[in-house]
Amino acid sequence: MSQTPYFDEAAKSATFEQDGQFNIIGVRAFITSCASIADWMDDLYMLLGERFIDARLYLSARRAAKRTVTALLAEFHVPDDPKSKEQFFAEFYAAIGWGNLEYQLDYAQKTGRVVVKNSFLAQGYASKFTAQGRSIATGAKSTITRCALLGAYLAAQVSNFFGEEIEMQEQQCAAMGNDACLFQVSHERFSLRNHHKQNES
Ligand SMILES: [Zn+2]
User: What is the CATH number of the domain that holds 115?
Assistant: First the structure.
């Protein structure tokens, strides 16, 4: 992975400032554990339900991700061809710890899927902090997919690759005990009506 230019460029741009202003690629950021994110998500799912939370996360992240895709491609001077873009986003999101993205896309049919290993949302689900503050793997299995936010980012990327707006539906999630999270290209607009229909049978 370290042989590749985008990974190195993103990873090496991280600056740890003594005054508390951590930056990566010039963006003010902060570091938190995946377990903490998953814990916040647990509360939201419990209070408001997965349909509302997944829709809310997906729709807001989808708008943000559309801007992010354009900005990142310009910032890193990524060549305007799909394979270069696939390589770039795989390396960039690996560098910032979101997961390992593998695009399996059919450009002629504008369909396909993205397989994500080590999704931060899924891995956080299966780890918890003990009362003594240690992070431990619990092996817990979710009954629902947990990575709608990641799916929205993938949808914005693949829409850019295809030159056509598509959506991404998470069909299996590592948090449910699968090896990886699997996101399928969908040409239906995201809505509460069709979301998760494949899991309801
Ligand atoms: Zn997942």
Answer: 3.30.1380.20
